[in-house]
Amino acid sequence: MARKFKLKICSFEPNSKRFVDGVVLATFTSSLVITAWSQLKPAFAVEPETNSRTSISTQTAVTTTEPTAQQNQSASQDKKASQDKIASQDKSSNDASDAIFNRIMTRANKENWKQLPIGELMGKVARELEGTAYVGGVLDRNKQQEICTVDLSALDCVTFFESTLDLARTIKKGGSKPADLTREVSFTRYRGGKPTNYTSRLHYTTDWFHDNEHKHVVEPLQKLPGAAPFRQKVGFMSSHPQSYSVLVANPEFVSIIKKQEVAINKRHLNYIPLNKIAGIEPLLKTGDIVGICTDLPGLDIVHTGIIFRDQAGVPHFMDASSKKSNMKVTIESGPISGTAGYSPHNIGIMLARPLEP
Description:
β8 (301-309) and β9 form a beta hairpin. The strands form two sheets. Strands 4, 5, 6, 7, 8, 9, 10 and 11 form an eight-stranded antiparallel beta sheet that branches. Strands 1-2-3 form a three-stranded antiparallel beta sheet, with no helix packed on it. By secondary structure, it is α+β, with helices and mostly antiparallel strands. Helices cover 36% and strands 16% of the residues. The chain contains ten helices and eleven strands.
């Protein structure tokens, strides 16, 4: 009998591999959810979390009757309670996030970070975010509509590098308010910089690299020594829509996601295989954005972070780690060549360098 595992966002850090009844748990970037695959089988099988509302609806599809006034009232009350809870969470998160934003901006102004190259500036920002709690699923708190959520008090691996980049861009542009940061995040997070609905979010990291290259936000480092063709094809989201609450609620989005995946799969990309990473380490700079590449079917990148060079010049991998002993933004020990291969499914890294805004 298949076992079911609760889905969550963005994990599988170095040394965080866990085994449950012969099944390895892993997680994937952005809105790509956790899934499971058997150690004993080559096939990549998904067993999504059961959605109770969907299950009930399916079971009563044939025999259902019109809901009573009492049932409608109860449903309305439940919806309002859910909305009130989201509003309360958002208010608390906004207050904490704004406090972090103001602290970083105060230091940036005092120390004139604006004059630094953007990569070094990202390093300064990242150190300010070091120790921030890892929290998955931040972008999907509101199930009703797509909202450009920015919460500096709770980060996953994607929102960590995203927030680091966009705080640096905000400082460079002379921004001073949380709304200025939200504007930058909205520009980098959504296709063409235009948020519309769930499908406008750049869910696949290689798609994020591509779109933000065209927006002149980053330069993908595609010609590094030892680079090899990246032959992975994406398709996980459209082939497992039941794993995404938004796609379950809006099945018309699946065909749009599918078209986006087809476009992604037509692109020619390079990556750095694990055994070639040490050779490019002298070329890496603080602030370079890192995607950990996988050979898992339907996926491209399974984890993200940035390069952080310490005073000795060692290029560390810095990430929002969901490893149980961390659960926070962390500078991983040693050079990235020693930490990128934490899973047998990791095949290398892909990099993008931030550009001056």
